[in-house]
Amino acid sequence: MGLITMVSCTKTGPAGAAGATGATGATGATGAAGPDSVQYSPWITLVTKGRMVDIYSDSIYTDTITAPAVTSSVLSSGAVIGYIYAPDYLAGDSAIVNVDDEELVEIVQLPEVGKIVLYWYPQDVDYTGYQYRYVVIPGNIETTSTSGTGTTSYNPGQLKKMPYTDLDGILKMRTSGNLAPLSFR
Fold first, then answer.
1. Is the dihedral of CA 54, 56, 61, 66 positive or negative?
2. SS3 string of the chain?
3. Which residues pair with residue 144 across a beta bridge?
4. C-alpha triplet 53, 58, 63: angle, nearest 5°
5. Residue of 129, 135, 65, 67 whose CA lies nearest to 100
6. What pLDDT score does 143 carry?
7. From CA 110, how far away is CA 25, in angstroms rounded?
8. What is the pLDDT of residues 11-40, one digit of tens each?
9. Is 150 left (phi over 0), alpha (psi -120 to 50) or beta?
10. Other CB atoms closer than 10 Å to residue 145's CB: what's the count?
């Protein structure tokens, strides 16, 4: 029969000095926006890519913009908002105008999955060469109010009618970005 004896000692002394702080690692690349994020395009110069004739023999110009952020979910519960950077002949300046403002813009925007088709009558206004930006807002986004205080929910109808400056105030998009100078016709 054997006997095993174990003895353990513990000594607690004063804490040692802290070690040097390690180097900070590099910041990683920004990831792509997720499917539940607000997305907006750069300013896109419109080009007449198609021509059609309506039942009254009037010409209709079209441009199709590739828009991968426009999904069936966005079409059913979110908002796709388009803006035109256009000359303001009355002020002798330019303005960013919501394409859903039928009093100021004579262009039709039809979002479809993966693209936005634009139609206009060139005899009214030829939008060829104008700049266009779209904003895609999923249906589940809460935003800060235009005053910058509090959280407000907007429905797709409210967002679609919102002036660019108000939407820019909420989403903090770059207002000017790569806008080209306008020539007045």
1. negative
2. CCCCCCCCCCCCCCCCCCCCCCCCCCCCCCCCCCCCCCEECCCEECCCCEEEECCCCCEEEEEEEECCCCCHHHHHHCEEEEEEEEEECCCCEEEEEECCCCCCCCEEEEEECCEEEEEECCCCCCCCCCEEEEEEECCCCCEECCCCCCEECCCHHHHHCCCHHHHHHHHCCCCCCCCCCCCCC
3. 151
4. 55
5. 135
6. 53
7. 46
8. 666 777 776 766 666 765 654 544 457 888
9. left
10. 13
CB 109 within 8 A of CB 132: no
Residue reference for tokens 């903090």 = 172
Greatest mean pLDDT among 135-139, 141-145, 166-170, 181-185 lies in: 135-139
User: Which neighbouring-strand residues pair with 84?
Assistant: 97, 132
Which residue has 């007045």 as its token pair?
184
